[in-house]
Design brief:
The chain is an all-alpha fold and about 140 residues long. Helix content is about 80%, strand content about 0%. It has five helices and no strands. The termini are far apart.
Amino acid sequence: MNKSFLKFGAYVGSLPVLFLPVSVLAAALPPGQGIQGAQQSLTTIKEQSGVGTGAQELPTLIGRIIGLVVGVVGILLVVRIVQAGILYMTSAGDGKKVDEAKKLMVQNVIGIVIIVSAYAISSFVINQIATATGSV
């Protein structure tokens, strides 16, 4: 099987681990509150987070999705840089492994620059759209 396909599968397979803290929050309700307490807690969280506040809902949602994607990709790129560093340190002078590690580091740094640039551009565009529509 292709190595890049296996690496991609490993990354996609590890994504659910990032969402484990969210599942832990389900245990925050005191025992005995039942469904009514849970609904009340969800309503309180919704009001405090500002979700569903009319015109700001779509830009806020888009911004949160972009932030989530940038965060996940950033974490993956940092992991790849560490992996390239380990490959570099364990190359034991093998020129082929050193060149491969350097190539991986350059590719990952370029990826981080692209991700940060994409985030900055999308943030600017969303702010300009929100300002133009009067939702800010």
